[in-house]
Amino acid sequence: MAGSGGRVRWGSDTALVDDDEARRRLVAAAGRCLLARGVVRLTVDEVAREAAVVRSTVYRYFGSRDELILAVLLERIDAAMRRVIDMLEHPDDAGRSISDMLMYFNGLVPGNPFNEELFAPDSRWIVTSIEVQSELVVDAYHEHLHPLLARWQAAGQLRADLDLRETSRWLNTVGLLLLSPPWTQRTDAAKREFLDHYVVRALVTGQDDRGAGSGGSDR
Description:
Blueprint: H1 19-37, H2 44-51, H3 55-61, H4 65-87, H5 94-107, H6 113-118, H7 124-133, H8 135-154, H9 164-178, H10 188-203
C-alpha cells in the first residue's frame, strides 16, 4: 500500500510489522510531531502522515490522541527516571535523595527542547492532566522508585505505614507541582526548602535523629 510521495505504508493488514514494532513506530512519529508542532496542535491525522500509515492504523493501537501523548510520556519518564536515579550521590540516604531526586527531575526541563515543549504554558495542563489520571504513569515511576523506597523503608528511614506505590504517585505529583506556576518562577533554593521542610518530613523518620526508626515493610 503506497503512501504519498512514494513512501510505503506499513499499516495494512498484510504488513510484516508486529504489534510492538507498530506501536514503537507510532510513538516515535507522535514524538516527532510533538516536538515540531506542540502538544496542543497534535492530531491523529498528523501522526498518521508522519508514520506513513492511514488514520485507522493509528486507532488500531491507540484509542485517542491522549493515549498517543501518554505513550510518548511513558517513554520520556522511563528515560528520565533512569538518569535521575543514576545521578543520586547518596542513594542510601532517604532524606537527601528525595529532595535531590525531585530537583534533578525538575532540572531536566530547561534546555531540553522536547521537555520544554511538554511543559510549555499551553501544553502543561494537558500533560499534567494525563499524568495525574494515569495508573500507567504511576507504574512507570514506581518501577524505578520501588527498589529505593523499599530499601529505605526496610532500613527504618521511611515511615513504616507508607504504601510504597502511593508514595511513588505522590512524589510524581510533587514533581509536576514544581513544573507548574507559581513554582516555575521560584528559585531552586525556595523549591528545595519546600521539599526539605514539607515533603521529606512527611515521608522520612527521625529527621532530628537521622537513622532512627522501627523498620518497615515492602509494600
